[in-house]
Design brief:
This protein has 659 residues and is of the alpha+beta class. Among the domains are: 363-420; 428-657, 4-Layer Sandwich (Phosphatase 2c, domain 1). The protein has 21 helices and 13 strands. It has helices at residues 26-38, 42-58, 62-78, 82-99, 102-118, 122-138, 142-159, 162-178, 182-199, 202-218, 222-239, 242-258, 262-279, 282-299, 302-378, 384-425, 429-435, 474-494, 500-514, 612-621, 627-642, and strands at residues 439-444, 452-458, 463-470, 525-534, 539-545, 549-553, 558-562, 569-570, 581-584, 590-594, 602-603, 608-609, 651-657. The strands form three sheets. Strands 2, 3, 4, 5, 8 and 9 form a six-stranded antiparallel sheet that branches. A five-stranded antiparallel sheet has the order 1-13-10-6-7, with helices on one face. β6 (549-553) and β7 form a beta hairpin. The longest helix is centred in the middle third of the chain and has 77 residues, at 302-378. The chain is flat and about 110 Å long. It comes from Fluviicola taffensis (strain DSM 16823 / NCIMB 13979 / RW262). Residues 432-658 form the PPM-type phosphatase domain. TPR repeats lie at residues 166-199.
Amino acid sequence: MYYCDVKNSLLTITLLLFFVPCWGQTNGMDSIYQLGKAEKNIKKKLLLFNKTINYGWYYGEYDKAIRIGKESLKLAHKYKHDSIAALIDNNIGIAYDYKGEYYKALSHFFTALDVAEKINDTRNQSYILSNIGLIYNTQGINDKALLYHQKSLQLRRKLKVKEGISASITNIAIVLMDTKQYEKAIHYYMEALSIDKELGDSIGLGDDYSNIGVCFQEQKQYKKAEYYHLKSLRIREKMGSIPSICNSKLNLGVVAIKQGKLKEGKKYLHESKEFFEKIGQKEALRFIYQSYSELGEKQGNYKLAFEYLKKLNKIKEELADAKNIREQTQQEMNYQFDKEREQQRIEKVKSNLENKKKQEQALIINLAIAIVGIMILIFSIILYRRWNEVKKQKVIIEEKNRQVEEKNHEILDSINYAKRIQTAILPSVQLLERVLPEHFVLYEPKDIVAGDFYWLEETKDSIIFAVADCTGHGVPGAMMSVVCHNALNRSVKEFGLRNPGEILDKTREIIVDELSKNQQDVFDGMDISLCAWNKATNQISWAGANNPLWIWKKQSKEIVEIKPNKQPIGKHFDMKPFTSHLVELEKGDRIYLITDGYADQFGGLESKKFKAKNLKNLIIQISNEKIHQQVNILKSTFFEWRGNLEQIDDVCIMGIEIE
């Protein structure tokens, strides 16, 4: 990747880090710390200490910031100021990050995140998630970096904090650039650019234009790259930021030489080279030396080309050494972080056991006191036998209650373990995001385990996916879901079927066979909506059992419904072959696979069903929202409609936008 600037919310991690500690500012840090020590109010004292830590990492006093931070944490925990403790943990994490001790930084970030989630501090959560994503990005763990930046963006959109939204969007775009997904990166940068224009953020605008230019460089669209780099340079020249100006000139020099504008390219390279050599920025120098070598070759000046080729090779060796060190650091970070989290888990278990033991001892003492008191009050010769009988009955009842509680606990443990198994057979988030980039899944089981499930199988030429509603919910529904899930897998993998109607026919055959082994009539099964999507032709082949397919057409802004066969996947009095439907789709169209749980939910002012018609209208109303944002609206609408009423069924909706 060519050299570019990036921005973020709390940590300033860029491809070039222009951070020069201002050591004269440590007096200000000490002054604030002394004010904190003198302050009598504990909350104000802790906030002053937190500001001191912030000063520390900002001005390079990392060890002092960490020391003060750990002392402050003890005080915050002692007086149960959890929200301030989360702020302190976050700042300690930043200090460790600047020191390069990433596993310690992550440990403090995750501790802060746990507290912020516990007290529902959404704003602080968004900052911490962003910091975690930045560390993973720095270490090249891009999948985790993207996950945490997306979580941060989701919270910031909810909070409507535009500066934070712009920062998270930019962070996501950086990860996409690192993974060479330049078109997606440009899309995100354009969104950040729009927000920064609205905010009048000159620094952000300069970075946005520069990063968009770099994306076009990587795609060898040099005219577009030159256009955006020039816009970035004009903004940065007005601001007078020398590092940023040199950065833009470097990029313009590279682009000019690629286009054969040798004189212009040499001018830009010369103006940026002196600065980067002075500060020793190797990544920037690598592109400068490479471009000078290319310039010499194009001019026929092979002496110049050879001279800078040697410099380039030397820089590459130094960068390779740095990369090896970073990879080793990453391995150490993962090991140390896992080790520390495991130690924290063990300590937490010990603490819980100790608290439980104290509670049991207190309960025993209280119970003994109560029994003694009762004995003193009712003790008499006349009532002795009666009291003795009551006591015996009490022991019997307590034993029965204990046995019931043990059984309930065993049952609940089994159900929770069943949930883990059921969750494991569902498609992973990573698989869904890879094969269906523009999608959402709304999955709200009525109980711990569910009869509804969603399913996906990727073949060489198609993506086959479905949403299903098995008979019942809770444990019976979950058992049926495993049978039905296995039948779908066999139909596609073992029997090699690709046509939706044939898949449903074979699935029904397998399920009926599995449920008829003891020669009893079992009419359980499932309703399902199943698609096979040929992404090359954008053709959808679909079949349904009692569940329809909804298609929102981008051109008409309306929903087209394809009716299913009115029969379940299971034993039925009139079993017929399932019908396959071929659907032509256009870019921007959206398809929705649903079960009946959402529409059948009682709620509202009159405690009526939501109904499928209202669900259709809701989807049309939110059609202007991006597909992955619709799930939040659908979910909040569902719970607002339900109110305090009980959820009557599992809910599962899958939405996909055609790319």
